[in-house]
Write a structure and sequence with these properties.
The protein is built from 17 helices and no strands. It is mostly helical and 298 residues long. Helix 7 packs across helix 17. The longest helix is centred in the N-terminal third of the chain and has 23 residues. The structure holds iron/sulfur cluster (SF4).
Length: 298
Amino acid sequence: MNLCYNVRMGFLTETKALARFPPLGRHTPLAAAQNALASKRFCLWQNVRMGFLTETKARAFRPLRAACAAELFLPMKNDGSTEEEEKTMEREKLEQCLEILEREYGGQNCALNFVNPFQLLIATILSAQCTDKRVNLVTAELFPRFPDAAALAALEPGALEPYIRTCGLYKTKAKNIVLACRALQQQYAGQVPADFDTLIKLPGVGRKTANVVLSNAFGQDAIAVDTHVFRVSNRLGLAHASNVEATEDQLRAAIPKEKWSQAHHWLIWHGRMVCAARHPACAACPLAMCCEYPDKQA
Ligand code: SF4
């Protein structure tokens, strides 16, 4: 029997459906969740949305969700007839999330100051484990002195360090910036290549930096997964991944290509403004209804 289906069709009330969760006999949220976990067809947000659970009851599942989140958030494996519905609901949820994100953060762009791809490349390298605000302060002094790859390539890393010291990790960053600029000079006539595979070969340039440059400086469709995008997309359930690379793949598969770059900014801004790493403001979050984070505070 597919209880969710019967409740949705009006054949069963929520109370009767909960009473039929075999075989535990106790219809506590824990027992119900354990049963649902065993049947592998349970997803809280879907049940809330269908009216199968109230938000209050769904919240009561949190202790088990925290312990078994990976299992509980497996897509529902229904008995054939509703599999297509399941995909449709996932798609609807994604669209709903994107709509809310766009409504809240539409128009937000890269917070790093730059006027050309070279400046964005250097600013993005500097932004690792540093705030954009701090990077903007540093680059406001750095770029007038060193306006292009040739100027930075002529330096020794030690000579660059004093200019970027406040960004943190400055020794590594200075070395990578100088080496990257020398590579640009020697191989690309001082220009930043607009190609992902080429960019990630430059010292200090990983997937995130390459995607930021391609998206913001060259207008290409790209999703850069930084700490905010990783955290927020996995909390919301737009991705279910344990590393940034898998998160990027899943977001690219889930989000329409023309929205990749914008969605990247929306997720970053939501992470900055609402969904902080340690104390997310869930009570004020416009996405709380579709959020799958087991420890959300709403
Ligand atoms: S409900 Fe909380 S955890 Fe979920 S997206 Fe909103 S702020 Fe983040």
